[in-house]
Structure formats: structure tokens, C-alpha cells
Amino acid sequence: MLKISSGILAVFLILLGLEFNGLFTALDPAISKWLQMVIPRVFDVPLSFFSLVGSFEITAGIIGVWALIYWKKTKKVPWGLGFFVLLMVIELFGKTVLVHPGPPADFFRTTLPFYLPTSHVETNGSFPSGHVSRTVFLVTIGFFWAGRHRIVFAFCLLTFAFIMAISRIYLGEHWTSDVIGGLLLGSSMGMMAVRFL
Predict the structure, then answer these.
(1) Would you write out the chain's pLDDT as a tens digit for each of its 197 residues?
(2) Does residue 137 contact residue 193 with C-beta atoms inside 8 Å?
(3) Going by C-beta distance under 8 Å and a sequence separation of 6 or more, which residues neighbour residue 54?
(4) CATH architecture of the domain covering 2-196
(5) What are the residue boundaries of the structural domains of the chain, listed by start?
(6) Cβ-contact 131, 168 below 8 angstroms
(7) DSSP 8-state assignment for residue 21
(8) pTM summary value
(9) Which of 4, 65, 92, 167 lies at a C-alpha separation of 20 to 30 Å from 59?
(10) What's the distance, Cα to Cα, between the start and end of the chain in Å?
């Protein structure tokens, strides 16, 4: 699993380099426009609320509760969850070092009566998507710990991750390349967490 995780992380770094060189400059807006054409506006509010689940506050809360349950059952500190912190460091590095602005205001469709505190943290860029990377991190851990109901559980988890990825593009919060970067980063760090738990 460590080799697969390292390979996915290498693909993420390659994507980071391609993003740095502007490879997706034309493709990203085209995909966003297409997605906003095929998904009706009636989904603005439900997808906006759904997208909240991937926020830092909620995912960190889930990780915290899970770590507490893990510690109570095993009396061991879940050091593998340090990869969640590493994920956040890599995300912030990408967003502050890579000059890759997110979608302009005319793509924005998020409709919420409130925002969580970290929703308005300003950085130079939007690569990778933190919502997607955190969600995929949790989904990856959940998949490996699903046990005998793995097929049904995996379908639910993958559907959840897919909707999160689509929602971030549709709502005009991220480009497709940001979401792909989040998928790669989250799955890589999630596999490493599973390996070291």
C-alpha cells in the first residue's frame, strides 16, 4: 500500500508542476461552464450545504472523534492520523506558493445563509481543493476499515466523494484541476494513514 500511496503522491506532484506551467488554463473554465449548464440551478442550495461537510471544521471534528474512539478501544495514539496534518500542510503550501487563482465571481453559485470561519481564508491560489482532499482522506480510511460490508459501504463512500468533487466545481469554488489534485492528495495521505494505523 505504501508503494501505491507514494505513486499517487508522485502523480499529485506532477499535476502540481503542470498546474504551475498553466496546462489547464483553457480546460478548467470549459469544464466548469459545461457542468453549470447540465446541472440545474435548483441544486445550488443542496450542494452548498453538502459541500459544508468537507470544510476543515467538520472533517477535523470527525477525525478528532474517530481518534478518541480509537484511543479508547486500543489505548494507542493513532499516529497515522498525522497524515491529516501533513495533508493540510501540503494543501496550504500549494495554495500559497502556486499562483493559481480560483474561478472568477461569475462562476460562483454557493448559496448559504452563513459561512464557517475557515471558508474565507485568503490564499494566492485554489490548488488543491481542501474540501475534496479532506473528504477523500476520510473516505479512504473508511473504505479500508469497512469490514465485511465493504462493497455497499464503498459504493456509498465513493458516491459521497464524487458528489463532493462535482459540487466544488459546480459551485464555482474550484477548477477541475484543483479537484483532481485534492483527489490525489487525499487518497495518498489516506492510504498512508491506513498503513501506519
Answers:
(1) 778 888 888 888 888 888 777 778 888 999 999 999 999 999 999 999 999 889 888 999 998 898 888 888 888 878 888 899 999 999 988 888 877 888 998 998 888 776 665 555 566 688 999 999 999 999 998 887 766 667 778 888 889 999 999 999 999 999 999 999 999 999 999 999 988 87
(2) yes
(3) 130, 131, 132, 134, 135, 164, 168
(4) Up-down Bundle (1.20)
(5) 2-196
(6) yes
(7) T
(8) 0.88
(9) 4
(10) 13
